[in-house]
Give the backbone structure.
Amino acid sequence: MAISSAFLDFYQLREQPFGVTPDPNYLYLSPGHREALASLLYGIETGRGFLSLVAEPGMGKTTLLFQLLQRWRGYVHSAFLFQTQCDSRELIRYLLNDLGLKSDGEDIVRMHADLNEFLFRETLAGRPVVVFIDEAQNLSNTVLETVRLLSDFEATDKKLLQIVLAGQSELSNRLSHPGLAQLRQRIAVQARLDALPPCEVVHYINHRLHVAGRQEAGLFTPGAFELIAEHSRGIPRLINNLCFAALSLGFALESKQITCDVIRKAAADLSLELRARTYPVSSQTTVPRLARGLRPWLQSLYSWSKDNFFRHRIFQTSVALLVVGSLAIYLGMHNGSGTAQPSPEIRRTLAATQEVSESVSLPERTTAENFVTVHGQGAQQTVSREDSRTFFTYVVQPNDTLRDLCMSTAGRYDSAVLAEIQKLNPELGNPNHLNAGQEIRFPLNYPK
């Protein structure tokens, strides 16, 4: 306990920010997560019957489901099933038990009758019943057919039961099976979670640090952010594991800032191989990958230079230019006239360093802003039909506050964020008082 307390004090944290349990308080709503959440909320509110959520392992699928449960708590009767290695009889028994109904699990006809009676009773009381089935890709075809039959519980004007199937990519493949065509046709909303682009990795990490109590920026260097994005491939679970390992290593080394070297050592300990990855890019933004295509030793030189010179001024950058220029002369290829011509790799490195030179006279930026400058903006995923390129529309849920929504969407709550929201919502009278059902437009990109 003393070591844990010392660790938190060392990094100015109230709690561990990179845990492995699906805590809804730490949910970071990237554009993709916002779109998935909005789609599922809409599907449940409109009584669509069947909905699905597909994501690769570690993408925060279960955390998003818990967020849905939290938002609907007190307004719907819900059940959460995660024991998917079962037969049809066991599935119904698990469902009844989670709904608080007694069952001997023997007579499946009796269990169906009890469930039908319960659903009618809840409907008359005005409480929708929603069932979340996690890891649904593990269900056999026979059990999936049983799940489909559950949707037959309906009144003349509405479905009595809403079912959310959540699973890995294999779930989509399973649903394409000819024998499950009837189930696939009933899924009205299909949401998906994709890996985070590099700039969202920065926002994700800073969001978790802020929720855990960290107030100061700069815990991770820009180069460290880049390596985390590349090693984790934008998968939140891998980001958490790598950040936890890096902070533990940094604490052991008494390092107040996590650098590239710390990330490399932590990634090696976790056996996270560096792999090439293509990130989605919006049609309006080009992502300049300055070090892409360089040989490994030049990539190391570039990363080291970025960590050590991006935030320093002209003297240090001039030294970098001198070193790289010397390398260009030494390694350059000679043309027919005898004039030394830098190789394409050296020219790319010179261009990268020149970009640093041109930017050092500007005021220093925050860690996240430096990283976004290098990587550009991630793909802007659409969630609004009105103008999906700039904002998305969110329906306020009970107990929502503007501060919580800003922290989830922007990772911060300050005057610049509020001004941007006010610009999109001129009719918003008192931002400190939100009403359930109220629609608010949030920008996809906030001012720095």
